[in-house]
Amino acid sequence: MATNLEQLYQQIILDHARERHGSGLLEKTGPGSVGESHQLNPVCGDEITLRTVVDGGTVASLSWDGAGCAISMASASVLTDLMEGLERDEAVRLIDAFREVMRSRGTIPADEEVLGDAAAFSGVSRYPARVKCAMLAWVALEESLLAANS
Amino acid sequence: MAVVSPSVTLLPAEASITNAEALRIRNDFPILGAEVNGRPLVYLDSGATSQNPLSVLEAEQEFYEQRNAAVHRGAHTLAVEATDAYEAARAAVAGFINARPDELVWTSNATEAINLVAYAMSNSSVGRGGAEAERFRVGPGDTIVVTEMEHHANLIPWQELAARTGAELRFLPVDDDGALRLEDAAGVITPATKIVAFTHASNVLGTINPVADLVRLAREVGALTLLDACQSVPHLPVDVKALDVDFLVLSGHKMLGPTGIGALYGRSELLNAMPPFLTGGSMITTVTMERAEYLPAPNRFEAGTQRISQAIALGAAANYLSETGMHRIEAWESELGARLVEGLSAIEGIRVLGPRAGLPRIGLAAFDVAGVHAHDVGQFLDEQGIAVRVGHHCAQPLHRRLGLTATTRASTYLYNTTDEVDFFLEAVGGVRPFFGAR
């Protein structure tokens, strides 16, 4: 199989696309404020509704409901693992860092120390048509954090 | 390799294009020699846009090099030559669908052609066009009928017309195989119906709709008919008089022509009774500061400077298709389409939309791959040089009806070979294993 394709669809992405951590919207039970965001990519129909609970400046929980390609679903799954328990400001910094990599057309490699499993999406940045797929859940989190803040 | 043009002089008189002939035809299409991702391009996306033969590219270039001038204005030699070439192209495209030249209106694309009719009806509904435009008026109590398999281009202009006028938009449903439920048609197409707008061949299902049945039902209640022929005119012989439709729209870039050009066919007496849609220069006779008189069709609907080079290139495209023979193209694509459907249906986890194997369809097959999103299927195929369309193909309601959000679509044209179809089928067979779909 072509190397390019394996670089794009790394095993970690294929695994997360099937396992989908955080999939299934959770009702808020504990303390904190809830933020929710719905994102749609009209080009391909990829869709996500992401709900986050922010408690005392910390991303206390994150859950989502979505339908889409392997890249978009795996990205939401990885995002869930990465963000839960982080300080809100740190979460925002990671979103910015991820966006910078995604928009770089392959020129900025992801720092695995910072982005963890999300670094596996580096290859996506060379496919401009797919960057939105990878970004979908991250934009949803960004918006839901703002909503939870307000 | 030297290209002999026109290729028609070399063609055998078989009832269908053959693989050997398709290989010769490919020489007329420079882009088909391209490589994608280090692999020979396998172009199976002609349903979205077709490729251009040299004769089309040359017609457009020749116009700019030798004849470029505004048409229907000015008396200098270039202006006369440009006008002649432009009107010859109109005659070529009109003749291609057995229409008269004055029954063919140039538009930017098929979408604009549908909007032209919808807005002319809208303008009639507020009194424009006077008494002779009465039959185009719609309002509360009237219905506009489309089908559930329409491209958004033949849905949204009618939604908007209904919203502006208070008319009701109704639709003919499709069954689980994507065929129109004709048994329901009598309840949908009623004496309240003013227009029935429907596609000739579905861009998702490949179904060829029973035009005669729908035209008869519309005629019985005095409704107008509009046929979206974007997926039929490029691929099968289309005769507007035999089909007996009131309006027909076509797209230039889906029939070997350039982008930016399409056309509306309308029966002459209808076009000449309709108020204009776009207004301005070149469509008038007498203008005062208060009002204007309009030219007869087709010029009445061609306001402003027109798409001259594109029209001329589309004329060349129609000539290329005529010389190759539309019956022969239809036969070849029917074979390629059958090969696609049979091959896809034999792959585990693949669900092909539309008519089952053995039933008529154009050279097009949209399919769902169990456990793999269409976008990923498209990416996987692209890596092997195969170009297909992924997504909802501008038909969200149809996808929703079939319980899907996105599908992958392969669509053929006269230049595709059975080897390409087989290569594609083998590649599709590798999709689910690669993604570990269960």
From TrEMBL, chain A:
Highest taxon of the lineage: Bacteria
**UniProt xrefs under CDD domains:** IscU_like
Molecular function (GO) terms for this protein are: iron ion binding; iron-sulfur cluster binding
Gene Ontology BP annotations: iron-sulfur cluster assembly
Residues in domain NIF system FeS cluster assembly NifU N-terminal?
9-133
Q: Which is a Pfam family this sequence falls into?
A: NifU_N
Question: What is this protein's name?
Answer: SUF system NifU family Fe-S cluster assembly protein
| Species name | Arthrobacter crusticola
From TrEMBL, chain B:
- Would you kindly state one Gene Ontology biological process term found in this protein's UniProt entry? cysteine metabolic process
Coiled coil segments of this chain: none
Keyword Transferase found: yes
- This chain belongs to which protein, by name? Cysteine desulfurase
Q: What is its EC number?
A: 2.8.1.7
Function, as annotated: Catalyzes the removal of elemental sulfur and selenium atoms from L-cysteine, L-cystine, L-selenocysteine, and L-selenocystine to produce L-alanine.
Going by the UniProt record, its keywords in alphabetical order are:
Pyridoxal phosphate, Transferase
Q: Which reaction does it catalyse?
A: (sulfur carrier)-H + L-cysteine = (sulfur carrier)-SH + L-alanine
The prosthetic group or cofactor this protein requires is: pyridoxal 5'-phosphate
Give one Pfam hit by family name: Aminotran_5
* Superkingdom as given in the UniProt entry: Bacteria
Repeat as a keyword of this entry, yes or no, is no
